[in-house]
Design brief:
Largest sheet: 9 strands, mixed
Strand content: 15-25%
Bound molecules: pyridoxal-5'-phosphate
Helix content: 40-55%
Structural class: alpha/beta
Distance between the termini: 41 Å
């Protein structure tokens, strides 16, 4: 039986590795559509996209699920609860949200307005601190201030204290203490301080530079000791409350994390011994996401669970504190990626598929290539193989003919370069080879098929989005995100395709996909159907992507919407953001659209054309200014 005959939604789930990266938040229903799942509710994402479009929310659209944010937070706290119970850990746990991961109002508000868990906020700049001071209205929220600080930043932190927040100013350099002392004299309030140290443990990953001795941030052991002396000299040792270190983001190896936690805990104990009565130990970020669904050491995966992570932190700190007789500190993590990645999905459509035609047209009359012997022979062999390709009955047969055909194509290409073979013959050879590859797939099934199709036989699927705007890490870091069709998953995906975005740039394409447990240079998709949209979902894009996105080719932010699942199978939309209009994008560039409008009117007035046509042209310009930048 061929793979296409045995294919079903279970094959689709395992092929696209859904159970391994989705954390239970996404699945496939009996219709072959992707669903979002929270608690006991499910939502068909294909149907949702159709509804959104009927309501004027055009593709691409970034769909955010606030309930996934909440559930992820619950899972994080539950893991630490289990670890604390298991180790009989006496200290508390607080998840701090590093807002740089996603500063969108709806994300910040979700973490702020949920009341189930005490969530702290971590900021790295004055602007992020301002955002927090604006969003957080309650008094009991901890705000952790990281990053290099000038006097204005530290003044703002003191203003936060006056507003009633528990602000912790984490000192990155000894000079910052001087500013703090000045502000204390001015504001008359006592600050809480933290110190960031750099560990020598290095955790490998795409962001490993942020950890280790060569790290950009953090005090060396020497500087840390100097800071302790400075605190003592100024009589403010009691202000120092938090030790912080950060080993990097997306750390795939638990062993490396564990080494860092142990080193951090030892530093904590040493600082205690020097007289700092620290009560908070902040282990920073690093908790990874299994984008690849492989549970491995790959930079886009992780070889541990959240439980393993929590256990490693709690047990390392616990054992050092017990050895040294120190009270267990409140543990802070800054796992922003893990808190947000799953909650956002980019949905878009394929606008065009560039594939090679199965059969080339007959020779055009007037073909000028001389009919040499070589050409006659090649044509005859090509015809024989093309006939066979349509009647392949086994995989071995298909594989054998593929090898022969490749040889023939090579000969034909040489003949073409020598002027003996026409363009039409060359095209026919390519088309036949492609037919053979399709046959091979049918016999063997994509996941067992080890020979990679040649790059030129991978179709180009042009998608209605900008990779630079919506998944910039693909461009910058070759990041892998799970991508799959939102529908037709009960149907065998017989087409190998590479996704390209709308930008006029060859970089605007995705080269790595997760397929059947491997990273492949193509994605198995379906043939496009005339009159039916083909929708794709880009998953796990909730962390970092939105704010890192840029305006390459002036594609702006797409539509975004919050979707809340309800128990009766319905859903509620909120915070619909129409995305950037072209006018807004031009304004970012300081282009004066009011002046443009006047100029266009003046110029069109001088054109000799009927008035209704001139009006139509003006309407087009106006409508384009108000439209978003994607294909409609
Ligand atoms: N905390 C600090 C100080 C960071 O620099 C970062 C990001 O690199 C984070 C937290 C977030 O880490 P993650 O991406 O692992 O959530």
């Amino acid at each position: 039986m061929s793979a296409s005959e045995v294919w079903n939604i279970k094959s689709a789930a395992s092929h696209y590795r859904l159970p391994y990266w989705a954390n239970g938040f996404f699945g496939i229903n009996a219709l072959g559509h992707v669903t979002a799942r929270v608690n006991a509710s499910q939502l068909d994402l294909y149907t949702l996209s159709e509804h959104l479009r009927r309501q004027g929310i055009s593709l691409p659209v970034l769909v955010r699920f606030p309930q996934i944010l909440q559930q992820t937070l619950n899972n994080l706290y539950a893991a630490f609860e289990r670890a604390r119970c298991c180790c009989e850990y006496a200290g508390d746990y607080v998840a701090a949200y590093p807002v740089k991961v996603n500063q969108q109002a709806s994300v910040m508000r979700q973490f702020y307005y949920q009341t189930r868990w005490p969530v702290a906020f971590e900021v790295g700049s004055k602007a992020e601190l301002m955002a927090c001071l604006g969003v957080l209205q309650q008094r009991d929220r901890v705000i952790i201030c990281h990053g290099y600080k000038d006097q204005a930043y530290i003044r703002l932190a003191f203003t936060g204290i006056l507003l009633g927040h528990a602000v912790v100013i984490v000192l990155e350099s000894p000079a910052e203490l001087r500013c703090v002392l000045e502000c204390h004299a001015r504001f008359g309030v006592r600050p809480a301080l933290g110190m960031r140290v750099r560990l020598s443990s290095v955790a490998k990953g795409n962001w490993q530079n942020t950890g280790g001795e060569h790290s950009k941030f953090g005090l060396t052991a020497n500087q840390a000791l100097q800071l302790v002396t400075d605190l003592q000299d100024n009589g403010v040792t009691a202000w120092m409350d938090m030790l912080h270190f950060h080993m990097g983001s997306q750390i795939p190896s638990l062993q490396q994390l564990r080494a860092g936690f142990r080193e951090g805990a030892r530093t904590f104990a040493e600082l205690h011994a020097l007289g700092l009565e620290l009560t908070k130990l902040n282990v920073g970020g690093g908790l990874a996401i299994d984008y690849q669904g492989s549970r491995s050491n790959s930079y886009f995966s992780m070889n541990y669970s959240i439980d393993d992570y929590a256990q490693a932190i709690v047990s390392s700190i616990n054992s050092v504190c017990r050895e040294q007789g120190i009270s267990a500190p409140t543990i802070f993590t800054e796992s922003g990626r893990a808190m947000t990645a799953h909650h956002a999905v980019l949905i878009t459509n394929v606008v065009n598929a560039q594939t090679q035609p199965e059969y080339t047209p007959e020779y055009a009359p007037g073909n000028t290539v001389p009919r040499s012997n070589k050409r006659q022979v090649a044509k005859q062999r090509l015809k024989t193989l093309a006939d066979l390709a349509r009647r392949i009955e086994s995989h071995t047969q298909a594989a054998r003919q593929s090898i022969e055909l490749k040889q023939l194509v090579r000969e034909i290409n040489d003949g073409f370069a020598d002027g003996e073979i026409s363009l039409a013959d060359k095209a026919r050879a390519e088309a036949t080879l492609r037919t053979l590859h399709t046959q091979l797939l049918k016999f063997k099934g994509h996941h067992q098929y080890r020979n990679e199709p040649e790059a030129k036989f991978v179709a180009k699927y042009i998608c209605n989005f900008s990779l630079f705007q919506s998944t910039p890490d693909v461009w910058g870091l070759r990041q892998i995100f799970p991508v799959l069709p939102l529908h037709r998953l009960d149907e065998f995906p017989c087409r190998k395709a590479r996704l390209h975005d709308l930008t006029c740039d060859s970089d605007g394409r995705i080269d790595s996909y997760i397929e059947a447990g491997c990273v492949k240079p193509y994605l198995s998709l379906h043939e496009l159907r005339r009159g039916q949209d083909y929708l794709l979902g880009f998953f796990l894009v909730g962390a970092y992507q939105e704010i890192l996105g840029d305006l390459h080719n002036l594609f702006g932010q797409p539509y975004a919407v919050n979707v809340e699942l309800q128990t009766d199978g319905n859903y509620r939309l909120s915070e619909v953001q129409p995305g950037d209009t072209i006018e807004a994008i031009l304004s970012y560039l300081h282009l004066d659209t009011a002046e443009m409008r006047q100029t266009w009117s003046r110029r069109l007035a001088r054109v000799s054309a009927p008035t209704n046509i001139k009006q139509f042209a003006l309407q087009q310009l106006e409508a384009s200014l108000r439209a978003n930048s994607y294909l409609t």
